[in-house]
Each structure stands twice: as structure tokens, then as C-alpha cells.
Amino acid sequence: MLSLTNLSTTETFSNIDETFFNCVNPLDKSFVDLLTAEEISSNVSLWTDKSFKSFKSLNKLKIEYEDSREILSEDIVTMISQCSCLKELSLPYSSLSDDLLTVISSDNHVPLKTIKIEAYSDSKPLPRISDEAWFTLENHSPNLNLVLNSYLSEEDDYDALLVTAVPVTHLFLNGSPPETIVRRIGENCPRLVELVVSSYNFGTIDQALISTAKGCPNLSAVGLGDCEITCSGLVEFVGLCKERLQILYIWETSLIEDTNFNISEATTQVSSLLGRKWMPESIPPW
What we know:
With 286 residues, the chain is an alpha/beta fold. It has 9 helices and 11 strands. The longest helix is centred in the C-terminal third of the chain and has 12 residues, at 263-274.
């Protein structure tokens, strides 16, 4: 089991069973259901109460994907404007808007601690959030943890949400993300702390991972699922972020031996670089 953690605060965002690293259907919500943070889910019937009295003292709120289709975006903004104590918000990307980010960035709201965003391919067209709205949120909540769970499979889908202005700190790429998107993580996500890639079907992930290590100076937790990486690529990646890499989850079957290292030699070298014993994950024989 891989525990993805905000390493600066030791808050656990998710406990991911190893089955997560199987190929995930982009519309499969099983991973989202594994989020362990204490949440209060939305109840559609409550949205008819325009005073939103039930929400005024909330610290945490989760707007379910199914519910978001039945709730007007204006009502979401109105409700959240009443939640001045809200510190943790979970919602679909399709529910985001400039107005919502402006509301949670106002002086009347405490700084947001965590926002969890789920992006689904069947909620197109995805809204376009302005850079100014993201900058305002980041300035209001400088210690924000932005967790992005993406189930998108088309490159164009990422134009709106995986850009430098979006302060993503925890990125979970489910299903089969586009090759160009994985390769541009280092360029687009400079604040990234944690990265999980469920599968990569475009050869070895070496250069994408090395680029991420170079472009994300805070990267400290990485999990790879159905991804191939050469032993030399792994050693180079770990060498780039050895002083900050605290979690590294890779299947033994993902490692490709090359002329420089076999799996045993790479494991020894990675352990030496990290200053602690490290082993790739083994697949049970049954």
C-alpha cells in the first residue's frame, strides 16, 4: 500500500491499495472513493434552502460528481460564500468557476487548506478558469494543497487545468493519460509534491520522470503503476531528487534492465542514493 502524504504537514491525503495501479477506466470512481479525509457530502435537498444555514459552520465539504449535475453553479457559489470557516473543499472540475475561486479567496473566508478536484471526460466542455482567479486563490491561501484527480484521456482536455497558473501540488493521473501531458508535468506543475501515474503506454517513462524531477523542486513522493522505466533511468531520476524523495513506489516488473544496471544493481544504487533501504514492489505469485 502506498500512502500519499503531504510531507510538510504529515497529513495523509489518500491510502491507495495496490489494485489502483491496474489500468483504470477513465470513468471509474473507485480511486476517488479511497480518499480518507473526513468529508461532509452534499445533499441535493439542502440546496433548496437558499439560506444554506446547514453549511455556515462547515470546515469540510464534498460536492459529489452526481450531485453537481443537479445543482446550479450559481447556487454552489452562493452556498460556499456562506461557508466562511471552510478549510477543505472537494468538487468536480466542472463545478469550478472564476466566481467560486473569488468567493473562497475573499477576506471573509479563512485560508483554504485543501481543495480536491476531480476531472472527468464526460463533463465536457471543461470550464476555463482565468489565471487571475488562480493567482488570487494562491495569494489568499499560500499553503494550499491542491489535489487533482484526473480521468481525462485527451490532450486537449488538459489545456484548461494542467497549466502553470493552476497550483497543483498532488497529481493523480488515472487511466491512460496522453504522452505529451506526462512529459510536460515538469514544465506545467512547478509546485508539485506528489505524482501518481497509473499507466504509461508510450515506451519507457524515463525522460518524463527525469523532466519532472528537474522541473518540480518540491517533488517528494512518486508512484508508478503500469509504466516501464529502465534501471538507468530510475537511478538518474533518484539521483536528481534523492535529498527530498521520501516515497517511491514502483513495481519490480516495471523495471527494464539495461547495459548499466540489472534490477539488483539498480536497487542497491537507489538505496545508496536515498540513504535507506529501498526495494521495488513485488507482484504476488497468485
